[in-house]
Amino acid sequence: MEDATSKTDFFVVKALEDGVHVIGLTRGTETRFHHSEKLDKGEVMIAQFTEHTSAIKVRGKAFIQTSHGELSNE
Ligand code: TRP
Prior knowledge:
The protein is mainly β.
């Protein structure tokens, strides 16, 4: 969905171990990694979906909150 609201959602990722990666994937016809952020245990990232970022991939144990709910991938 390319409406304005699809780019205003925030998400929160809290690392439950060292070396968790939050990987930003591009919006548009070509889906590729464009940014990788490394979090150590206890670190929190608060970020927004944007014109450039339509999806994220979280690698490692983390607690994730979005407007759709919250989950842990442990
Ligand atoms: N410059 C990126 C953007 O505006 C920064 C960014 C936003 C990002 N949300 C993210 C990077 C989520 C990684 C994960 O799209």
